[in-house]
Amino acid sequence: MPNPIIKTHRKESVCRDNQIYILSKGLNSGKPQKTAFTNSFVVTFSSKEEAETIYWLIYSLWKADFWHQYLCGSVIPFLRIHEFKKNFIPNLNNMLENMEQHHKQVKALQIIEIKEKQFQESLVLMDQMRSTILAHYFKK
Asked: What string of pLDDT tens digits covers the 140 residues of the chain?
């Protein structure tokens, strides 16, 4: 079982391959990313491969709105590091018990992520085509 180190991210610290950053403020609290957020926790793992595997577990928790129940604050909701630590490790261990299913789900999530990016790129191209057509129409 992984034994991650969870700390509050500091702006001057260096990003490493074996780290995952978790957004701690706003309605997207719990969102993982491989590059640093301004308001985030940093989770450090023993290897890059372990970080990659756990990234998708954290992504699953975020997409399932798991962290919404632990948000505090009335104007800008935030996730406390104590709540994150207390609930992250048990969920991580539960999810890692069935690695075969985890690998299938990670592959499915990766495919969805790729398709989502392709769809976003298509939307941008369609918007550009619309603008071009409308610009040509009004030039006459």
From this structure: 567 888 888 777 777 778 999 999 999 999 999 888 888 999 998 888 888 888 888 888 898 899 999 999 889 999 999 999 898 888 888 777 877 887 788 888 889 989 999 999 999 999 999 999 888 877 76
| Model pTM score | 0.73
Taking alpha carbons only, the member of 110, 54, 53 closest to residue 118 is 110
Q: CA–CA separation, 1 vs 5, rounded Å?
A: 13
- Rounded CA-CA distance 125/69 in Å is 38
What burial class does residue 128 get, using C-beta atoms within 10 Å of its C-beta: 0-12 exposed, 13-18 middle, 19+ buried?
exposed
- Which amino acid appears at position 61 of this protein? L
Closest of 2, 112, 109 to residue 60, by C-alpha? 109
* Number of Cα atoms under 13 Å in the Cβ half of residue 108: 8
CB atoms within 10 A of CB 40: 21
CA angle in degrees (0–180, nearest 5) for 95-77-19: 45
